[in-house]
Write a structure and sequence with these properties.
In the C-terminal section; belongs to the aldehyde dehydrogenase family. ALDH1L subfamily. It catalyses: (6R)-10-formyltetrahydrofolate + NADP(+) + H2O = (6S)-5,6,7,8-tetrahydrofolate + CO2 + NADPH + H(+). It is a single chain. By secondary structure, this protein is of the alpha/beta class. It has 28 helices and 42 strands. It has a seven-stranded mixed beta sheet. Strands 12, 13, 14, 15, 16, 17 and 18 form a seven-stranded antiparallel beta sheet that branches. A seven-stranded mixed beta sheet has the order 34-35-36-33-32-38-39, with helices on both faces.
Length: 922
């Protein structure tokens, strides 16, 4: 911020003549990292910096502008003052004139500069000011922009005159002020990067004779005092809540708004409007307010006189920054962390960065701010950590860990995907002792990083399908709960999740994969008692593939990019066209009951890798592993609001997700009928993008030249895997007539060997069906097949024991017109049909005669026939001499009424990304 004094009478500034040169002799007058970055950019653009005039060293610490100039052998002059009283110091002015500058550039200057200096160069002086002049002409312009509640912020580059920020305008740029913006966020997002670039552009315009000189209007001009006066930093609680919020954020992070809490002077930082219900917690008295504030797990909640609630996340007490949620607690030392060898290598790098910033030797107890660092040094520290260690920190990481040893701990935690390895979310747990272990999981909705009750208070019963006992009752989400989850997801998308680098988002995803692996046995057990999955299969597939999916897409998080595209140029100019891949924002995910955790992982991992946030509804009949996943997501370090999990009924919570105007994408796996409803709701709401993985009636063709034993084994896996509750199950098996009887004989022989029983027993092959309604559907399915003439060879009925057990079933004589040949059973029912291998095209036509097209398979030693089948079959997946072989890297999805869009593989990312095309003319 420039401060000018009337040392000489104002001289008018006019447009200078055309200049042929592309470089200038520039003097930079100012300080800070901002000025240092302008210096570097001017050199890069070919200009000569003939002198740098900056402030005195602070102790043994020189200003960043002086440091970078010295490294480049640019003359540096450290000026204590340019004047004495009202008069310029002749020796200082003479020193300045010796550098023979053609232009003065003042990127950030806190000193009074004499007009003898301002007007001396051929092209006079240009200055940077952090406001849209003429408004907020004072030294604290950006603070007052926020305090006054302006909807627009920005900066001006102006020609210096003898007034205070009143000279003609050269250029201005603006940006919107976001609801939770602070001085730091505005500087980091816009004023800092765009200001540096614009200062360099302004020098180029001066060099080319194209720099505008626009008289500055006095209309709407304002001048506010410096907020450095302590009296101006005190919160006036008599004002409206909105004004108070603007005041607190207008002083965040420097110098900080202060008030009195329980007779103690406290500074308030990181404030936001609170829109939820008031939490419970310790009450404290805030200055003149009548309603006590509440210290809770998310901060300090203050209720203003007009009823508006403001949440404060950080406090400064006696000069020490603390989490507001810890106010009133006894001080505790930071935990001891065991560093890996790689993490130990971070420490000397961080020490060097601190040493360069503070210009002093660094000890474990060195305090960043007490050693002279300011807010711009925080920016420099974060940027250097990013450059040298490829780790992204937040300003809060520095403010909350200003001591060197604590900062190193925070850095290591961030590298592991969390700022606190011991983060746990609090909830009232369900505790179950089963499978020789003690299980613990939540029974509430998971919204904004917390387990909460449903707005309606409705509950759902979770039934163990192995014995029909009630495991627990869980909260059932309503439309209002979906609204709250979307608000949380929107805030997370606009805030912390988008601010994290893709690599850091990937690190958090790797962390959740590690936690799933660490809790593999517990998750498999919960999956087993909740869905009926055989425990050993749950370990390998339900949980094992979930882990693989998170690792796979974590690797994709920092590899999403667009393309450059050659187009016809607009002669005589040229064009550059390129694309960007961008996340949608808030996405909805609705998953089925057959693979509860795996289906969550298939969709959510791709969604989050693409940079979206998510509101997810697991199936109401098997939601427990999703709630356990929610718990682990907090420990992994996902910011609040990124993941929201709402068990509930499809007719209410599912429909609310499909219809919600702020959800821009829905991913669904389930029935074709529900898929129709979701598409309709999405179309009638906001035309949100939809991907659907729906029903299947997948054909499996067994030719007469196959390996018969392998075909039998693979066919049985294709039908009976996971109790037949498998979307790509081989719904219809076509067997060549010459081997049909032998094939059926071998299948029945093997079916008799299947052990049906308790899914937790290690030698069980086949557990109960997922829920009672599905069991009854399978019984009716078999009755209809028999009534239409299909021959039941084995099974077809419920076992006479507690639990939803259904016998593995084989039908032969299945004809194309039968219900069993056309519709999915989604159970352990094999439907066998004869055909002749001599007419492959005929059987392919029959296989294609259903409304579905999810998967397919063929067994043959004839590669020509196999490839012909693969070419002609209408299915998203084709297996040749294998079945059920899915992989996290292979795209998965169907055609026709089996839906559209892909899970897994690189193609799954495209379901959660939009492509933006950008064309530049130059």
């Amino acid at each position: 911020m420039l401060m000018l004094k009337k040392f000489v009478k104002c001289r008018p500034i006019s447009r200078f003549g055309l200049i042929n040169q592309r470089d200038l002799n520039v003097a930079i007058i100012g300080q800070s990292t901002f000025a240092a970055e302008v210096y570097k950019l001017l050199l890069k653009n070919g200009h000569r910096v003939v002198g740098v005039f900056t402030i005195l060293d602070k102790g043994n610490r020189q200003d960043p502008l002086a440091a970078i100039a010295s490294e480049n052998n640019t003359p540096v002059f450290k000026i204590k003052s340019w004047r004495k009283g009202e008069n310029a110091l002749p020796e200082i002015v003479a020193q300045y004139k010796q550098v023979d500058a053609e232009l003065n550039v003042l990127p950030f200057c806190s000193q009074f500069i004499p007009m003898e200096v301002i007007e001396h160069p051929k092209h006079k002086s240009i200055c940077y000011h952090p406001s849209i002049l003429p408004k907020h002409r004072g030294v604290s312009a950006i603070n007052w922009t926020l305090i006054n509640g302006d909807k627009e912020a920005g900066f001006s580059i102006f020609w210096a005159d003898d007034g205070l920020d009143t000279g003609p305008i050269l250029s201005q740029k603006s940006c919107p002020v976001l609801p939770d913006d602070t001085v730091d966020s505005l500087y980091n997002r816009f004023l800092y990067p765009e200001g540096i670039k614009s200062m360099a552009e302004a020098v180029d315009m001066v060099a080319n004779g194209t720099a505008p000189v626009i008289p500055q209007s006095t209309e709407g001009s304002s001048f506010e005092p410096s907020v450095r006066k302590k009296a101006l930093q005190k919160v006036d609680w008599s004002k409206s809540g909105v004004n108070i919020q603007n005041f607190i954020r207008g002083l965040d992070s420097s110098p900080g708004a202060w008030t009195i809490i329980d007779e103690t002077e406290v500074k308030l930082f990181k404030s936001s409007i609170w829109k939820n219900e008031s939490p419970t917690g310790k009450q404290v008295t805030v200055d003149t307010l009548q309603i006590p504030a509440i210290v809770h797990d998310k901060g300090l909640l203050i209720t203003c006189n007009d009823g508006l609630k403001i949440n404060i996340e950080r406090l400064s007490v006696d000069g020490k920054m603390i989490a507001a949620s810890n106010y009133g607690n006894a001080d505790t030392a930071q935990e001891t962390i065991d560093y890996t060898d790689q993490e130990k290598a971070y420490i000397p790098v961080v020490e060097t960065i601190w040493k360069n910033i503070l210009n002093m030797d660094i000890a474990k107890d060195t305090h960043f701010f007490q050693s002279g660092a300011g807010s711009m040094d925080v920016v420099r520290l974060i940027e250097e950590i990013k450059d040298k260690l490829k780790l992204t920190l937040k300003n809060d990481d520095v403010y909350m860990s200003p001591v060197f040893s604590d900062f190193c701990n925070t850095l290591v935690k961030r590298s592991r995907g969390s700022t606190d390895d011991n983060i746990r979310v609090e909830y009232d747990p369900v505790v179950v002792e089963v499978n020789n272990m003690k299980l613990q999981f939540a029974k509430q909705l998971f919204i904004n990083g917390q387990f909460v009750d449903s707005e309606s208070g409705k509950t759902l019963e979770c039934i163990n399908p192995a014995d029909e006992s009630v495991i627990c009752s869980i909260q059932c989400a309503s439309e209002a709960d979906v609204d709250q989850a979307v608000i949380a997801a929107s805030k997370a998308f606009e805030g912390e999740w988008s601010e994290m680098s893709p690599r850091d988002r990937g690190a958090v995803m790797y962390k959740i994969a590690d936690l799933l692996d660490k809790n593999r046995e517990e998750l498999a057990t919960i999956e087993s008692i909740d869905s009926g999955a055989v425990y050993t299969l749950a370990l390998k597939t339900h949980i094992g593939m979930s882990i693989d999916v998170w690792k796979y897409f974590a690797g994709w998080a920092d590899k999403i990019h667009g393309q450059t595209i050659p187009i016809s140029h607009a002669r005589p100019n040229r064009n550059l066209t390129f694309t960007k891949k961008e996340p949608f924002g808030v996405c909805g995910i609705i998953t089925p009951w057959n693979y509860p955790l795996m289906m969550l992982s298939w969709k959510m991992a791709a969604c989050l890798a693409a940079g979206n946030t998510v509101v997810m509804k697991p199936t109401e009949v098997s939601p427990l592993t999703a709630l356990k996943f929610a718990e682990l997501s907090v420990e992994a370090g996902f910011p609040a609001g990124v993941i929201n999990i709402l068990p509930g009924l499809g007719i209410e919570a599912g429909r609310a997700i499909a219809e919600h105007p702020d959800i821009r994408k829905v991913g669904f796996t389930g029935s074709t009928a529900t898929g129709h409803a979701i598409m309709k709701a999405s179309a009638e709401s906001n035309l949100k993008k939809v991907s659907l993985e729906l029903g299947g009636k997948s054909p499996l063709i067994i030719l007469d030249d196959c390996d018969l034993d392998k075909s039998v084994r693979m066919s049985m896996g294709g039908v009976f895997f996971n109790k037949g509750e498998n979307c790509i199950a081989a719904g219809r098996v076509f067997v060549d007539s010459s081997i049909h009887d032998k094939f059926v004989e071998k299948v029945i022989e093997e079916v008799k060997k299947i052990k049906i029983g308790n899914p937790l027993e290690r030698d069980t092959h086949h557990g109960p069906q997922n829920h009672k309604a599905h069991l009854e559907k399978l019984i009716n399915y078999c009755n209809k097949a028999k009534n239409e003439g299909a021959e039941l060879k084995i099974g077809g009925k419920r076992l006479d024991r507690p639990g939803y057990y259904f016998e593995p079933t084989v039908f032969t004589g299945v004809e194309d017109h039968m219900f069993i040949a056309q519709e999915e059973s989604f159970g352990p029912i094999m439907a066998i049909t004869k055909f002749s291998s001599s007419d492959l095209d005929a059987v392919i036509k029959r296989a294609n005669s259903t409304d579905y097209g999810l998967s397919s398979g063929i067994f043959t030693k004839d590669i020509s026939k196999a490839l012909r089948f693969a070419e002609k079959i209408v299915a998203g997946t084709v297996f040749i001499n294998t079945y059920n072989k899915t992989d996290v890297a292979a795209p998965f999805g169907g055609f026709k009424k089996s839906g559209f869009g892909k899970d897994l593989g690189e193609e799954a990312l495209n379901e959660y990304l939009k492509t933006k095309c950008i064309t530049v003319e130059y």
